Amino acid sequence: MSWRRQLSKLRQLFNRQTPADLNEEMRSHLEMEEDENRDAGMSPEEAHYAALRRFGNVTLAAEKSRDMWRWHSIETLLQDIRYGLRQIWRSPGFAISAVLTLMLGIGANTAIFSVVNAVVLRPLPYPEPDKIVAAYLVNPRDPAFRSSHGFEDFKAARDRQKSFSSFAAVEQGRPSFTWTGGKEPVQVPGTAVTAEFFSVLGVSPALGRSFAAGEDVPGREHEVVLSHAFWQQHFGSDPLVVGRSITLDGASHIIVGVMPAGFHFGVRDNDDLWPLMQLPTLNRRPPYFIQPFGRLKPGVSEAQAEADLSNIAADVQRQFPNSEYSEARIDPLKNMIVGEARMPLLVLLGAVVLVLLIATVNVANLEIAQASARDREMAIRAALGAGRGRIARLVLTESILLAALGGVLGLLLAYGGVTALRALAPGGLPRLKEITVDGQVLAFTAAVSLVSGVLFGLAPLTRGFGSWLNGAEALRGGTQNLSEQRERRGLRNALIILEVSLSLVLLIGAGLLLRSFERLTNTSPGFNSQSLVSGRVSVPKTRYPKEEHIVAFYDQLLERIQHLPNVTAAGLTLSLPPNLLNLTNPFWVPGQPTSEGMNLPLAVETSVSLDYFRTLGIPLLRGRLFTDADRGRSDGILVINNTIAQRYFPNQDPVGQRIKTGGASADNPWETIIGVVGDVKYTGLDSAPDPTLYVPYFAGGWTSFSRKMFLVVRTSGDPKNLVSALRTAVQELDSDMPLANIHTMDELLSNSVAQPRFRMLLIAIFASMALLLATVGIFGVMAYVVSRRTREIGVRMALGASRGSVMGMVLGEGLRIVLIGVAIGLVEALALSRLIKSWLFNVQPLDPVTFLGVSLMVIIVAAWACYVPARRATKVDPIVTLRYE
Amino acid sequence: MVDNLLETMTPRKQTEQRIELVYGTLDMLILRTLRWGPTHGHGIAKAIERMSDENLKVEHGSLYPALQRLQQEGWIAAEWGVSKTNRRARYYRLTAAGRRQLISETSRWERFVRAIAGVLGGARSEEAK
Fold this sequence. Notes:
The complex is a heterodimer of chains A (885) and B (129).
Chain A: H1 3-14, H2 19-39, H3 44-55, H4 58-67, H5 74-90, H6 92-121, E1 132-138, H7 151-160, E2 164-171, E3 176-180, E4 186-189, H8 197-201, E5 207-208, E6 222-226, H9 228-235, E7 245-248, E8 251-258, E9 273-275, E10 290-296, H10 302-319, E11 327-332, H11 333-338, H12 342-372, H13 375-383, H14 388-424, H15 439-458, H16 466-469, H17 482-522, E12 532-538, H18 547-562, E13 567-573, E14 584-588, E15 602-608, H19 612-616, E16 620-623, E17 636-641, H20 642-648, E18 658-661, E19 671-677, E20 692-696, E21 708-715, H21 719-733, E22 739-744, H22 745-752, H23 754-788, H24 790-798, H25 803-832, H26 848-874, H27 878-883
Helix pairs in contact in A: 2-3, 2-4, 5-14, 6-12, 6-14, 6-15, 7-10, 12-15, 12-17, 12-23, 14-15, 17-23, 17-25, 17-26, 18-21, 23-26, 25-26
Chain B: H1 2-9, H2 25-34, E1 39-40, H3 41-51, H4 60-73, E2 76-82, E3 88-94, H5 96-128
Antiparallel strand pairs in B: 1-3, 2-3
């Protein structure tokens, strides 16, 4: 149909010849003919009938004329739907298996798409989100590494930039604040922000005000903005809360505003508090731990903004010549927030799409089997004049109905799935709160259902079903001819091959992740994790302003805890294995290159108490540990880990050697190595041990970092029983000090692998679904093939074929297809397994054990699915089947 | 309606000798007829019969779907008018696009006829040998 005709139809929809018009036109035609006939001498009656004869079927002509103006004949569609429903009702077994299969496929897709949509696709929930960009510092010699900003960097950028309408920063690495003043001190998640934080995001408080530009300077009263949830829960939605004070980390903060419900900031979407930072003036560039971002002015491009900030970074670098970063980069805020979550989610989406493909293939195979039983019906329809299009529409209506049912059930499944995903998702998945089944997701589900419905509905319309479309030919005998039989078998086999190969891909993915996870959980964290409990203490500046106060508090705390019953050792540390790293520091070993502007290697540097090593069971390899005798020493002493010893002191004893931390410059004091201990992992079980430096917690200069430390306690009893005793010990010393984040070390180890476990779990679920569907598919097709060949098998057996040979024939045919599928699947897996390379720990993407093992498993399962119908074939009684002839 | 149906199912003895229309040629004949000026459905039917010396079998009813199709293509346009015999009738006229379509259809048809005639003519002369 040409576009012109479509257009004209559209126009005529509103202005078309009405049926009454058409009837009048035809009546006038007949009357003219009658007139002529009468003029030619016929009687009026004769003239009337002759005119009608000449005209042909009036109703048909009228109907056809009207059809010309119709896009879809609604009546025909309704008729097809009614017919489809009746057809579904008539073969409930087929319909149920098809709908359930589709439900699994569509449900899994909808659930995962909801997550992808919320996390990756949807714009951030702020006005004009594309305008918000994050800024980073880079060293042109190592541009891949993007650093956060130091205070001086941020202040320079904020004051001198010309590209942003507002510019703000958040403090990194501080997850929570201690709120005192309630029944007992609690840790509340929150992020310290600079003054223009809310203006950059473009969200105003629901109550009170947000911070005003320029308020983020020392010496003012502390201010805080609350989340809606926190305000509801702890202040009973009191509208007069603005202006009241709360104590956070020991300092009084004035509540200036309450954000609207649902407001959250990216990765930290559980935050309840946004205290205002007070930017200090430091005479150095590091530490780099605030992350700036800004809202671009209208008309300013990202490149212009980057050049603007790079100029400022270069200025700051000239101000501090020993520092490295002289350029800036900017990147949409969404990338910072979504970041590393994107790729895993897309891979998961890919996995569920494979599952849906397998489901669709399965239903297509069911359709083919079902359709073969309907050859006669279709032949009759074709013989009675149903055109190709009409039959295709009938079949497609039916299959889309099935898919729609599957889609509706799948949607229900997805609702449950999304709830489960939200509950199970490991921490660190950004925008978790935004995950919902919304209009976009519904549209996705509808589209997916429609596409799969059309895909499997097309199966009976392929060449193997030529007789359906070509009319009377197939009426003879009502069965398809040989070439059709062959083509149908070819199609079925191709579908099985596809199914087997796709499930093999998913299973190999799951197998790789499983092996990787097993290796991950079996790696040693570097210490004995049993019977250990840890918790976090934070010593507020208000009541413990000086270094000696902090040290005294920690000394008393350890003293008390060591004397609790069942406690065998207790220690303190700034960073806690396996992955709670708090601080890294550059270090320099004499003899290593130090040219200006080069990045020095980074080490985990952590302050620890004397008994820390004994508490965790970290072995001393050389030299000695810290003792009470080291208190009050003016020179720096260090314990290093084995990685540093091996890498930087390969052929010498590191004990007694001196190194520098924080930088290589001459005015930086030397620190002496007194001992070497075993490697411990601080950046996750999956990473290699980092170079690690230990300093005693009483060492000078460590005060500001040591305000928040992890307490670790080893017990001879059940670690769980120790929790309340520990809490009491802390409270007895200082009733306003909470012991937060209490966990056993085994829990921490388990939490640290939550993400790989989650990924493995999801992929394993999808792979199992795939295997299940593929098995059902193979089983169904083999059973169908055997039932179609009953007569042939009967003849063979009557002619003397043994049960064994019949079994071998059926089994052999099935296995041949399965093996082809496995071979193709292996090739696909070879190509695809590198997608998950970054998730694998100590396992190669082409791990031969996984590839072989999974292939073997698929073959065994598929062989079983072939064996059951094959055995039925051997039970065929030749006499009975021949009698049917 | 039932008697209508019976009527059309009766054998059409008098038209048995007529030639069945080749698919798609009806459109061309309608366009051709309208070259002489606007006329109504009945007029078109009569004109086709006259032009072909009553050799072509055209059920008048089958004109109407074709007329609708041609209107959609924009090749003809229609409006109500009054016939010579004072009956209200829908008059069809050729549009510019329809005129172009007629020219191209006609030349294609002539090529087709020449080709078939060539094949058949060859066959006849071979037989004659």
